Amino acid sequence: MSKSILWTPISEVPMRPVEWLIEPFIPLGKVTVLAGQMGQGKSTLSAELAAKVTTGKTDVGAAASVLMFSAEEDPGDGIRPKLEAAEADSARVCTPAAFELKPQLIEDFCEEREDIRLITVDPIGDFLPAGVNAWKTPDMRRFLHPFVELAQRRGIALVFIQHFNRNLDSDDALSRIADSQGLPQVARSVLAWGPDPDDPDGDGGARKVLAVAKSNLVEDRPATSYRRESVPVAPGITAPRLVTLGGSSHAASDLLPGRKSRPADALLEAALADGPKLASVVEAEARDRGVSADQVRRARERLERRGAMSRRKRPGDGCSEWSMVVEVAI
After folding, report:
1. pLDDT tens per residue across span 72-112
2. Among 16, 126, 253, 315, which residue's beta carbon has the most beta carbons within 10 A?
3. Which numeric CATH code is attached to 18-255?
4. Sheet strands (E) in the chain
């Protein structure tokens, strides 16, 4: 049979493992979305990522260059001080003057700096060409597809930064990303950034969390916690940097602005306060109170991640039994 120029049998496509810039958050050769609320330090996180890349502290190993598109940070009093605070090799970081994102522009930069491994665009909405409607999913998908191909071909991690919207009726991190759903749909990794819910100082505190909201590349949804602190970088100049604290049990939904009280969590805690119960009984109580099965599932997962709740199969009948974990002081 003659070989077609229009299609390729998938059996002839070589398999390869996923390559990571920073596993399991930012893959190489793919689009990542970083979403967070205003004033929580997304640009500080961008500087931290740039520092890792330019000093060789990534899964790639070798130091590489970074391209940072920023519409909200001044290079002199915003971008560079944060890079210096993060101990980045600033000579490897470029900030384009262009305010319109085009595939050919990226290609030209990659030709000039062949070692570019990370490109951040903050925020993506400010760099859309005229005629691209950020609110229309088909528009965004058509706009993004050339960048998906470029990232794959060049082996670049392309990170688009976006704000969360004000839709307080949803606790789904993906639906809370501003504008259309085209951006999170195309991205292979979607990250949520926000204040640590356990910080006693609240949303204005120094502790932050980075959590995986969506990944087509890993099964788990890990999270990492940080502390933001200010350090001197030059006479009379201080800038924020991030200190990694370790893993976090919080999910992306816990980082959303305007987090509502979680009635499903309270319902589970109350239902199990007097001891273990069958899952079917708890779920029936939830339905009677207007709490959906999905809300119960998410609440159970949150409580389990915190180590506050456990499940087991009851001996004999194999029915699932839920119970709250009681901490005993020693």
Report:
1. 899 999 999 999 999 999 999 999 877 789 999 999 999 99
2. 253
3. 3.40.50.300
4. 20-22, 26-27, 31-36, 65-70, 93-94, 116-122, 157-163, 189-195, 207-215, 223-234, 237-247, 277-278, 309-313, 320-324
